Amino acid sequence: MGVKGLLITLEGIDGSGKSTAAKHISTQLQEIMPERRLILTAEPTGGEAGKILRARLSSDGPCSSPSRRMEELFLFMADHADHLARLVCPSLEEGAIVISDRYADSTAAYQGVTLQGIVPDPVQWIRSVYAPWNMPPDLTLFFALDPALALKRMRSRQEREKFEQLEFLRSVNENFRRLVALEPGRFVSIDASRDAQDVAAQALKRILKRVQTSL
Ligand code: TMP
């Protein structure tokens, strides 16, 4: 039998440093395990639904109508389904380590805020829609950072995306914390307030530990 694939996801609010860490982690992991196939991917993806989402994220404000918010949720879900079918599942079947910068938990956390008042308990509702067909991660690193600090870090960025506002990020952060509490065996929290190298080192250590237990 071939080596077992492993799915690792990185989650956190905007500005938590997970995308920078993802690049460091994948370079270092590939150096440590040159024989292992490693895929670094992200959601929204570069697929059809992902492209529509990216275009909207830089234009739309978060206060759109209920029907637009539902449309956005289904675009994130369609993008996730496409990601699973096109890349995640085939790569895992080939025994790869797949690292995804955002995954289904982002939908529960972010759209869990945008759908408040439209569906009852949106976090739980989104989780229940995903449950029958999602590929659950083996490990999820939650990049824990105070939303005010995350926003301060993002001030230096040229372009702002629509979800980068303090009250909104606070609510998203609460949802992430709820998800961590619901599945403590899958989530590991990373202290994302440290400098970038330290954050990447903490994350790499956790990933290596999980890779070793899967062998
Ligand atoms: P990124 O900044 O990590 O590339 O993600 C783009 C934005 O999309 C970010 O503000 C989080 C948001 N997002 C959702 O609202 N729902 C989702 O399911 C995903 C994957 C991202």
N- and C-termini, Cα separation:
12 Å
The biggest beta sheet reads: 5 strands, parallel
Report the mean per-residue pLDDT as an integer.
93
CATH architecture call = 3-Layer(aba) Sandwich
β content, as a range?
5-15%
User: Mind telling me the CATH class?
Assistant: Alpha Beta
Structure report:
The protein has a five-stranded parallel sheet with strand order 2-3-1-4-5, sandwiched between helices. The protein has a single domain (6-214), classed as P-loop containing nucleotide triphosphate hydrolases (Rossmann fold), CATH 3.40.50.300. The longest helix is centred in the middle third of the chain and has 28 residues, at 66-93. The chain is α/β, with parallel strands linked by helices and 215 residues long. It has helices spanning 18-32, 48-57, 66-93, 104-114, 122-130, 147-154, 166-182, 196-214, and strands spanning 6-11, 38-42, 97-101, 139-144, 187-191. Helix 3 runs antiparallel to helix 4 and helix 4 runs antiparallel to helix 5. The structure holds thymidine-5'-phosphate. The site of thymidine-5'-phosphate (TMP) has 12 residues, from helix 4.
